[in-house]
Amino acid sequence: MTDHSGKIFPTPTPETAHYWAGCREHELRLQRCDSCGQHQFYPRSLCSHCMSDQLQWVVASGAGEVISFTIVRRAVSEAYNPEVPYVVALVQLAEGPTMMSNLVQCDPESVQVGMPVSVTFEDWSEQVSIPKFLPPGGRSQVVTTESVQSAVINPDAPANSLERKATGYRSRRGRGGQDTLLQ
Ligand SMILES: [Zn+2]
Q1: pLDDT tens digit sequence for 117-157
Q2: Does domain 17-152 have CATH number 3.40.50.1370?
Q3: Which residues make up the environment of ion ligand 1, defined by Cβ < 5 Å?
């Protein structure tokens, strides 16, 4: 395992513990509101769209798109020196929310706004795994139609919005060629 000591580790709170537990399982978990159907990230105790407390956890497809990024060439601390230059990106998930993360296993100069990406996880310790994103052709751990459909933790809840978003994402992605999402 790569040495990640000295980096900024997350401290789970009651709102985020389930999210971080999911990352440890290499699942990207989002909250979805039963009242309005929207997904949200980061985790909160109320829906950021309608203030409902009727939130449930679902597993995201892991698919997203770069909407902004920067290339970091001077690390924020010594612990990150081995990784420069690295990409910090805003990724809009197929389910709607935006996450800040890193793009990995790619040439930073090749990154573009609009690039489709998929989640992967770095294991930083026995307890902590961090979600990162891979560009097309990266080694993806996600996304078949089956995995999206089975991703709903609460089987009684409708999965329609998640499936619809994921399907829309796949259809936008046609130009890439090596399309693991089309399995
Ligand atoms: Zn809501």
Answers
A1: 999 999 999 999 999 999 987 654 444 334 433 344 444 44
A2: no
A3: 33, 35-36, 47, 49-50, 52
